[in-house]
Amino acid sequence: MELKKLLTDNPGKKLFLLGNEAAVRGAVEAGVSIAATYPGTPSSEIGTILYHIAKDANMYFEFSVNEKVAMEITSTAAVSGLRSFTFMKHVGLNVASDSFMTTAYSGVNGGMIILTADDPSMFSSQNEQDNRHYGRLAKLPVLEPSNPQEIKDMMIYGFELSERFKIPVIIRTTTRISHMRGIVELGEIKKPVDNTLKLFDNVQWKKGFFEKNPDRYVPVPGNAAKMHKNLILKLENIKKLDTKLNRIYPSSNTSKKKFKFRLGIISSGSSFNYVYDFVNKYNLNMDILKLGFTYPFPEKEVLKFIKDLDGVFVVEEVDPIMENEVLSIIGKNQLKISVFGKLNSIFPMIYEFSPDIILNSFENFYKVADRTHDIKKIADEFSKKEININEYDRSTRVGNIELDGLIENLPNRPPTLCAGCPHRSTYFAAKRAIEELEISEDDVVFASDIGCYTLGINPPYQTADYLLSMGSSVGDGGGFSKATNQLVMSFIGDSTFFHSGISPLINGIHNKDEFVLTILDNRTTAMTGGQPNPGIDVDGMGDPAPEVSIEKIAISTGAEFVKLINPLNLKKTIETYKEAINFDGVSVIIAKYPCTLIKGLKKKKPMEIDYNKCNQCLDCVKLLACPAISIKDGRTFIDYFNCRGCTTCTQVCREQAIKVKLLKT
Amino acid sequence: MKDVFSKNPEFYKDSYTIYVCGVGGQGIIKTSAIIGNGAMNEGKNVVMSEIHGMSQRGGVVSTELKIGNYKSSLIEEFGSDMIIGFEPIEVVRSLNKANKDTKILININPIIPPNIGSQKNSYPNIDETIAILKDNYNHVHTIDGNQIAKKVGSLLTLNMVLLGAATADETFPISKDNIISSMKDNLKPKAHEMNIRAIEKGYENVKSLTNF
């Protein structure tokens, strides 16, 4: 899709949009002036698109060095009267949380939306934390869209809510919503630029004005106490709102009463889609209350919905948050309604849901219900069950024994470092140096970090032994060096180093740690799709920007061993690793070579195998696991279409059998 | 086992679900967005799910499209009306979405996993794999998509060759013309001509067959 379509003021027009594209459209329609992020999947595409269209949308956009700074950029914009938008993956909010908690206290003037994209089932994350808790922790409203149209609409609604109550608003998506495509009907674009407020001619976005008010904006203890009180009052007022975001989907089946008792369903987000389809597919007599505004929890609407029911299902992904709210409402009102959710093992406690999981869960319920026909007995039976943390057990396939054999013995296809990826060469060299120094693998701890290079966990590299979070490899390096006598090798990417690797490096130097830190500088934030970072000479607006030198930062921390190398030169890299390992203290190696996916790089000539020299030792296949090298018709083979000509295999080959491909095929 | 619930035929009226699978870099997400866009242009409701995995390229990629009354974008077990497979073993990996009557389109060109040297399982023989699939499913159609794409002018058109092939099936809910116009909405103008040829060649390849 052409990105320009997201900017066209064409109300009523329908586009088939990704959830993340719909978020961008929402920001455009709402007239956002300032947006900031640190890239993280499943919300990455929002930033990638804004990078391309911010200027045309009269918006300032930046890839901040980390989520905390992005939070600060957008909070200050909002108190200066501008609409601002920050978005991040769920764990990004952990990084931003310090400023996030206080921005709830100081509040906003222009609307502010914080979009957090959770990742149930951890498709690309280190945990599946449920960020709805953050709404409760910070006391900020939480909106939960179920599809791209709702993401866009909730952006608009969220800004209005935010301005009306002077409070930042959280939109919580999940991977399945951010990476869902659906039909989105466009709305009107609010005119974003008020030229009268422009302070400088070279600025393309609207500027605001910050009116001083330390009582409100500086949370010294006396002020903070008042601010907290004020926040509670705001929430109380928000509770009184009538919102269309919570609505009942009545069952189309009113005749078929299967049981004497009445059942209903409360759901939100992606789970709502599954239960809606489920109820309608089987034409069941159950109304669904869909909650789009989930914090402050809509007690009155929920009470009204459940009070005539005998049993209510609460269907939500990850943590039983709404379920506990419903139980609390039932308790407060001394009602006799059975709640069926995660706490009594109707639904699994972990991972994202699917149509099959929902069907399976309701089947289990109905089997018991058909037997007992008594809601109390059903509730008793389920409350005795152990917590449900089982993976959904796929039913047997419809096939013969040969098919079963084929499926059972299918090779896996884990994500891999790309052909020509410089990380492969770095990992190969580091491990070769360890081998040549005759250090046993068990005596080396590899502290890894968040990025493509985490794929080093897989054979043949096996260079990831411990990982906590963005930037953790550096602090972990220090920790292991104090806790053990093992050799510690930390690996961190360029963007991740800027994000949160610098402070722990200072810590390591000051505390006399001993580890080898490799900064894998591939000139981009590769894992999330190739966004710029402070080490690149371009900023989030696509404008030229000062390039911040990783080498100078490393030297300025006081590190005495700082070497900049080209990892594609294996011999030199191996030698450098040997020196670094033998160095007393923190040694820093900057392995600098651009990611092969960066557009516009000069294409190098692909390699080929000279079968007269190749002795089929398979070193190139087994030691490198390069996607361009495989075994075809019983012998090694280089796929010239995939080969990026990095020459790593040429240098690894002991028979000098890999050369630049001569003939054009 | 007797089913606990019975299906409501009204809900399934005009529904069609497509599972697209292969390897990162083959153009799977673009193909699926073009199908979805085409369905929308025909006035149909459509939802789609895509997962961007850990790896930029080379990992398993799949998308799910549901046309009809659905709100959820995930296809049920055994629930695909069609599977468009860009790579043979990725089709095998997707079979929990297939039933006996699923239309299964397979590009026969394997992409060997780069870690094949360090794992227990080997890449299965293609002919045997296809034979097993044909024994178990009623509508398995193989296509040498890579060869057709190269003839059209670039291996990069593989995805449109396979999409063209899919449109040739009578059950496919979107017309070839609408697919072409949706392709034009989604690809740069200079790529249109070659991709139209790719769609046509894929279409012809399937039309020449009777059992799909």
Secondary structure layout:
The complex is a heterodimer of chains A (665) and B (212).
Chain A: E1 14-18, H1 19-29, E2 34-37, H2 44-53, E3 60-63, H3 67-79, E4 84-89, H4 90-106, E5 112-118, H5 132-138, E6 142-143, H6 148-165, E7 169-174, H7 175-178, E8 180-185, H8 214-217, H9 221-239, E9 247-249, E10 263-267, H10 269-281, E11 287-290, E12 293-295, H11 299-306, E13 311-315, H12 321-332, E14 338-340, H13 355-372, H14 375-383, H15 401-408, H16 422-436, E15 444-447, H17 472-483, E16 487-493, H18 494-500, H19 502-510, E17 515-521, H20 550-556, E18 561-565, H21 570-582, E19 586-592, E20 607-609, H22 619-624, E21 629-632, E22 635-638, H23 648-652, E23 658-660
Parallel strand pairs in A: 2-3, 2-4, 4-5, 5-7, 6-7, 10-11, 10-13, 13-14, 15-16, 16-17, 17-19, 18-19
Antiparallel strand pairs in A: 1-8, 6-12, 9-11, 20-23, 21-22
Helix pairs in contact in A: 1-2, 1-6, 3-4, 13-14, 16-21, 17-19
Chain B: H1 9-12, E1 16-23, H2 28-41, E2 46-50, E3 60-67, E4 82-85, H3 88-93, E5 103-107, H4 126-136, E6 139-143, H5 145-152, H6 158-167, H7 176-186, H8 189-207
Parallel strand pairs in B: 1-4, 4-5, 5-6
Antiparallel strand pairs in B: 1-3, 2-3
Task: Explain what the structure shows.
The complex is a heterodimer of chains A (665) and B (212). Chain A folds into four domains: 237 residues, Rossmann fold (3-Layer(aba) Sandwich); 137 residues, Rossmann fold, CATH 3.40.50; 171 residues, Rossmann fold; 54 residues, Alpha-Beta Plaits. Chain A has 23 helices and 23 strands. The two termini of chain A are 33 Å apart. Chain B is α/β, with parallel strands linked by helices. The longest helix of chain B has 19 residues. In chain B, α4 links the parallel β5 and β6. Chain B is globular, with a radius of gyration of 17 Å. Chain B starts with 8 loop residues before the first helix and ends in a 5-residue tail after the last helix. At the A-B interface, β1, β8, α10, α13 and α15 of A face α1, α2, β2, α3 and α4 of B.
